[in-house]
Amino acid sequence: MPNLISPQIKVTVKLFAAFQEVVAKSEIYLELPEYSPVSSVYEQLVATYPVLESWRAVTRYAVNLNFVDKNTPLQNGDEVGLIPPVSGG
After folding, report:
1. Rounded distance, CA 57 to CA 67, Å?
2. What domains, with CATH codes, occur in the chain?
């Protein structure tokens, strides 16, 4: 019988500004199915912290210090940054 359970990967999530304030941490660790898109990190956060839903459309993603598209697949050990909009001058 084929293995129906996808292997899990572990990623470090760096939180900034509004995300850090809501979660009350600057960094969290998540386990996700292998090849999950980086947007799945946001899905997990919104499930726990629904107030973050309002930031979805304006959040940028970074993987290993590089900005990426929300569909970029994650790999074990990746560092994910959620970048909220920044204002000021």
Report:
1. 15
2. 8-83 (3.10.20.30)
- 58-89 pLDDT per residue, tens: 999 999 999 999 999 999 999 999 998 776 55
Ramachandran region of residue 48, left (φ > 0), alpha (ψ -120 to 50) or beta? alpha
d(CA 6, CA 26): 28
DSSP designation for 76: T
Phi and psi angles of residue 75, each rounded to the nearest 5 degrees, phi first: -125, 160
25 has a pLDDT exceeding 90? yes
Please state the pTM of the whole predicted model: 0.86
